[in-house]
Amino acid sequence: MKMRDIGKNGPIVSAIGLGCMGMSHAYGNYDDTPSFNTLEEAVEQGINFFDTAEVYGPYINEELVGRALRPVRNQVIIATKFGFNITK
What does pTM read for this prediction? Predict the structure, then answer.
């Protein structure tokens, strides 16, 4: 996997990141098992950059990604987005 520096002193991330929205949002029912398998395989393939958001679920996606990547948390970068008005 090709890697990229983010900024002068920033982290080194994989050139390909994994967007995780579809693991809990937008495509109907979801199941943790295939999502965990996908995240595990992504790490094995050298991906270390994962994208999530509080609005995916809401909150479910961040929790799922956090649980799945807990064993390798010190090896990955998790980006999230917040500030959505999800009470409406």
Answer: 0.90
